[in-house]
Amino acid sequence: MLDRLLEAAQLPTITLQVLPFGAGAYPGMVTPFTLIGFPEQAPVAYMENLASNLYVENPEDVRRYTLLFNHLRARVADPDTSVALISEAARELERS
């Protein structure tokens, strides 16, 4: 599976970044979400769990999720470092 991530990271439309364990707790850790942007529509935040899913369309709420996402992006490794971290993890898995 890590090999598939590394393959995807080579595509021009994908930016792969990871949050190293050493970064510790981060905002949004409890509530995974996806920001979805549309060319001619306002963005939407999307969340799913075991029992349901939720599309958040209220602009103020979407702004909060966007802010949360920007805080997260400030803590992740850059794409090259992220690929190196994933490559190292793949090598460690192969050795074990």
What does the model show?
42% of the residues lie in helices and 18% in strands. The chain is α+β, with helices and mostly antiparallel strands and 96 residues long. A three-stranded antiparallel β-sheet has the order 1-2-3, covered by helices on one side. A hairpin with a 2-residue loop joins strand 1 and strand 2. Helix 1 packs antiparallel against helix 3 (79-95). The longest helix is centred in the last third of the chain and has 17 residues, at 79-95. The two termini are 16 Å apart.
Q: What's the SSE pattern?
A: HEEEHH
What is the overall silhouette?
elongated
The major sheet is characterized as: 3 strands, antiparallel
Number of helices: 3
Rg calculated over all Cα atoms: 16 Å
Mean pLDDT comes to 92
- Share of helical residues: 40-55%
Strand content: 15-25%
Secondary-structure-derived class: alpha+beta
DSSP E strands, number: 3
Model regions low in confidence, pLDDT < 50 over at least 5 residues: none
